[in-house]
């Protein structure tokens, strides 16, 4: 019988039974029924299966024949996104239906794991661009090549050509293990103690396209490098080189980084892993994500939310007990440089040859340029080329006496090995030109910004990073730039809504303690219209030059 307290005030609401916490859709806790449309699509049919339908049906019957769940869902597992229809302004991005925003062409992402390209691969990438992609071939900030204007009819032939040289689009997008970031100088850098390439290759050959990992709660990003030359803290899992005083060179493991909603930097697990064990530890972390990751809400489905809720101690314990069946060795923290290394310019390799790092503007290159690059790389080096996670590229294996002729020749095709600070440090995401989520234009704005700053502040002598993003999704890492720009509509002249950016100042990755590691400050009132962006950055730069201290 219920007892009512006589002391209770009459206006006190009746005590409610404690609410049961809502499930997060974690498979390991028994939640196997999809809780949203994305989970339903993945459960109904493994997204990797869509390839057969593309090859046997859609490529023959054309765009109109594509099942909407394949088109806007499963196609991503093969690197395919529908492209934004030209002429739709950013103000309509949030109000139009997906089919109203897209045209019948695709963006196609080619994964270049570790950023490594052979001469044969580069030539095939260039030929596809010119033949099927209207000469587009952007270098992304995850070392991918991104085509636009792809027709579904051409996709099987593009796959055939890519796969003939060992490239693929498998799981280049989608809720699965994306391209593995790697050091662009893996295997050649003087300072590298262990080349992590075998671990990258093993992970890709064992697990990419493997249905054990093709249904993750969301995308899964990986970085594996000896040097601090990738944005490792922005990845779901990262392996970073460290020399253990007793066990020698191996890798320090970080988990739970990601920058879109609720940005978080990855945290150290405090373990040391030898090269041979990297793939197993990687698979254990992905397994935790698949089984314990949150699947109820898309914006809470990245690994970082689980890491934030569990803490690294519990994460390590579950990894060891449930996934590896053994204890991992404790490890020391790696040494971090004062700035991330971008490899631009001429540098010595450990075999005495050199590599030359060059900058396009905001990662924009064409197939024609890549074909010219292939000829230069063959004439000056061994033909090996690497892409960087800063939208730049390297030519490897150049004899010392050939470096200056290569620098000149690269300049002749629009790739600058001695760029201004502006060109060197500016990145831009895809933006409104092709991206359905975009609110503002980014690539062209980035090009204009670099040109204007080169004209007005040519001799600016500090390292500076400027990252332009077309929306809050932060694909070009808004929060970790010196000047991070998040696309949004702002109030322009006459009170009209116009394209603009919210500004984040002072972020950085790969920094030693005491430097500016962490996120830029998002100051509430700090916004600029896109048209005023060059003046805005110029003012910031001039103020910095006038007030910086010695050695800053
Ligand atoms: Fe598209 Fe936004 Fe990502 Fe830019 S940041 S590529 S606009 S989703």
From TrEMBL:
Annotated Pfam families: NIR_SIR (PF01077), NIR_SIR_ferr (PF03460)
Family membership noted in the UniProt record: Belongs to the nitrite and sulfite reductase 4Fe-4S domain family.
Keywords, A to Z, come to: 4Fe-4S, Heme, Iron, Iron-sulfur, Metal-binding, Oxidoreductase, Thioether bond
What GO terms are given for molecular function?
A: 4 iron, 4 sulfur cluster binding; heme binding; metal ion binding; sulfite reductase (ferredoxin) activity
The reaction(s) this protein catalyses: hydrogen sulfide + 6 oxidized [2Fe-2S]-[ferredoxin] + 3 H2O = sulfite + 6 reduced [2Fe-2S]-[ferredoxin] + 7 H(+)
Q: Supply the name of the protein.
A: assimilatory sulfite reductase (ferredoxin)
InterPro entries under this entry?
NIR_SIR_4Fe-4S, NiRdtase/SiRdtase_haem-b_fer, Nit/Sulf_reduc_fer-like_dom_sf, NO2/SO3_Rdtase_4Fe4S_dom, NO2/SO3_Rdtase_4Fe4S_sf, NO2/SO3_Rdtase_FeS/sirohaem_BS
Write down the PROSITE patterns for this protein, in alphabetical order. Answer: NIR_SIR
Give the protein's biological function.
Catalyzes the reduction of sulfite to sulfide, a step in the biosynthesis of sulfur-containing amino acids and cofactors.
Domain Nitrite/sulphite reductase 4Fe-4S, by residue range, is: 173-325, 424-552
Q: What is its EC number?
A: 1.8.7.1
Q: SUPFAM superfamilies in the record, alphabetically?
A: Nitrite and sulphite reductase 4Fe-4S domain-like, Nitrite/Sulfite reductase N-terminal domain-like
Query: Which cofactor(s) does the record list?
Result: [4Fe-4S] cluster
Nucleus: is it a keyword of this entry? no
């Amino acid at each position: 019988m219920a007892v009512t307290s006589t002391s209770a005030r009459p206006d006190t609401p009746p005590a409610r039974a404690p609410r049961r916490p809502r499930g997060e859709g974690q498979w390991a806790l028994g939640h196997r029924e999809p809780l949203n449309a994305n989970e339903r699509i993945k459960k109904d049919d493994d997204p990797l299966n869509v390839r057969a339908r593309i090859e046997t049906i859609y490529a023959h019957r054309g765009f109109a024949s594509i099942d909407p769940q394949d088109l806007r869902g499963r196609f991503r597992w093969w690197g395919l996104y529908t492209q934004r229809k030209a002429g739709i302004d950013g103000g309509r991005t949030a109000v139009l239906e997906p089919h109203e925003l897209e045209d019948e062409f695709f963006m196609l992402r080619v994964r270049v794991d570790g950023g490594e390209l052979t001469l044969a691969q580069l030539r095939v990438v260039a030929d596809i661009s010119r033949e099927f992609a209207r000469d587009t071939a952007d270098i992304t900030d995850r070392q991918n090549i991104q085509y636009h204007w792809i027709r579904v009819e051409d996709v099987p032939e593009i796959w055939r050509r890519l796969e003939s040289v060992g490239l693929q689009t498998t799981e280049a997008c989608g809720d699965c293990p994306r391209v593995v970031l790697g050091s662009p100088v893996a295997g050649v850098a003087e300072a590298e103690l262990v080349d992590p390439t075998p671990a990258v290759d093993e992970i890709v050959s064992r697990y990419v396209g493997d249905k054990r990992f093709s249904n993750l709660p969301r995308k899964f990003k990986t970085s594996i490098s000896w040097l601090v030359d990738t944005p490792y803290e922005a990845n779901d899992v990262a392996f970073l080189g460290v020399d253990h005083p007793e066990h020698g060179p191996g890798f320090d493991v970080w988990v739970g980084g990601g920058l879109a909603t609720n940005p978080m930097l990855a945290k150290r697990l405090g373990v040391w892993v030898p090269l041979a064990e990297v793939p197993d530890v990687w698979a254990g972390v992905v397994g935790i994500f698949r089984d314990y990751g949150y699947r109820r809400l898309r914006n809470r489905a990245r690994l970082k939310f689980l890491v934030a809720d569990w803490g690294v101690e519990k994460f390590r314990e579950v990894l060891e007990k449930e996934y590896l069946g053994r204890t991992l060795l404790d490890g020391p923290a790696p040494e971090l440089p004062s700035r991330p290394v971008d490899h631009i310019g001429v540098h010595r390799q450990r075999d005495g040859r050199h590599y030359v790092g060059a900058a396009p503007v905001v990662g924009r290159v064409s197939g024609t340029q890549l074909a010219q690059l292939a000829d230069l790389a063959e004439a000056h080096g061994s033909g090996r080329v690497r892409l960087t996670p800063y939208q730049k590229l390297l030519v490897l294996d150049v004899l010392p006496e050939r470096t200056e002729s290569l620098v000149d020749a690269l300049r002749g095709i629009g790739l600058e090995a001695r760029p201004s600070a502006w060109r060197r440090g500016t990145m831009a995401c895809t933006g409104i030109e092709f991206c359905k989520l975009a609110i503002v234009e980014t690539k062209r704005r980035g090009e204009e910004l670099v040109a204007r700053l080169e004209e007005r502040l040519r001799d600016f002598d500090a390292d500076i990073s400027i990252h332009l993003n077309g929306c809050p999704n932060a694909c070009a890492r808004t929060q970790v730039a010196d000047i991070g720009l998040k696309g949004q509509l702002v109030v322009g002249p006459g009170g009209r809504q116009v394209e603009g950016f919210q500004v984040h100042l002072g972020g950085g990755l790969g920094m030693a303690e005491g430097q500016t590691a962490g996120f830029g400050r998002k100051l509430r009132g700090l916004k600029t219209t896109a048209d005023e962006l060059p003046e805005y950055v110029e003012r910031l730069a001039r103020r910095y030059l006038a007030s910086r201290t010695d050695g800053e």
